[in-house]
Write a structure and sequence with these properties.
Elements: E1 2-7, E2 13-18, E3 50-51, E4 87-88, E5 94-100, E6 103-116, E7 134-145, E8 159-162, E9 170-175, E10 195-205, E11 212-215, E12 227-229
Parallel strand pairs: 2-9, 4-12
Antiparallel strand pairs: 1-2, 3-10, 5-6, 6-7, 7-10, 8-11, 9-10, 11-12
């Protein structure tokens, strides 16, 4: 078990924990931890995305004689991409032009809830004094494929917690399994209409709390260039 600490350029402390209690999700593509200072454009993120069962297909109905049956319309993101700096309500989806390596697609992304954890949850990560006085928060978010590209095995990460004053919460990158906030890449066959749940860990001092979240993956950037949920 090991942990690395790096100071992000935006002033938020980023912790990287390596948990020996890994599960099958350890085979996902995970960026290597770094102890060097990072810049907002290349800040480390925790790969997250936990597959769920495919979205239920539309209900069938009888087709009158002589009429041709039509397939259910594909899920869409509403036709308008979220703009940098745009703010959404918790649970409200944002349409995003998603890029992961050479894979490009369209997703509907929403922060579904922010759960307050227990400082004892972090004991298994053996971070010691690095997380003393900090409370973990679990940012749960939902990904729906609204495009035509199969996004299997990609990871929708770049999600950070936000404090009440709008500043970024400290970020915890976990390499390996973490039952409180599980992470895997998107599953095989993640095509149009498929939905998955994911989670990111944010840390805040006991005197404050995490009340929102932001997504700064391409084409967005950290800070005012990100989209957020509050």
């Amino acid at each position: 078990m090991r942990a690395l600490v790096g100071l992000a350029a935006v002033g938020a402390l980023t912790l990287t924990a390596c948990n020996d209690d890994t599960s099958s999700d350890s085979a996902k593509n995970t960026p290597p931890p770094t102890a060097a200072p990072t810049t907002p454009a290349a800040a480390p993120t925790m790969p997250v995305s936990t597959p769920t069962s495919p979205a239920a297909a539309g209900s069938s109905s009888s087709t009158p004689a002589g009429a041709s049956a039509t397939a259910p319309a594909p899920a869409t993101g509403g036709g308008k991409d979220a703009t940098p700096g745009q703010t959404f309500k918790i649970g409200q989806p944002a349409q995003v032009q998603f890029t992961s390596g050479s894979t490009k697609g369209v997703i509907a992304l929403s922060v579904s809830s922010i759960e307050t954890g227990d400082p004892a949850d972090l004991d298994a990560l053996k971070l010691g004094d690095k997380v003393k006085g900090l409370v973990p928060y679990y940012v749960h978010y939902t990904i729906t494929n609204t495009g035509t590209t199969d996004l299997a095995y990609t990871s929708v990460d770049h999600v950070k917690g936000l404090l009440p004053d709008g500043s970024e919460a400290q970020e915890l990158m976990i390499i390996g399994g973490f039952a409180k906030c599980p992470s895997t890449s998107l599953p095989k066959g993640f095509t149009n209409g498929q939905t998955a749940q994911a989670c990111a860990v944010a840390l805040a001092p006991t005197a404050t709390k995490v009340t929102g979240a932001e997504y700064w993956g391409s084409p967005y950037t950290l800070g005012k260039g990100a989209i957020s949920w509050k």
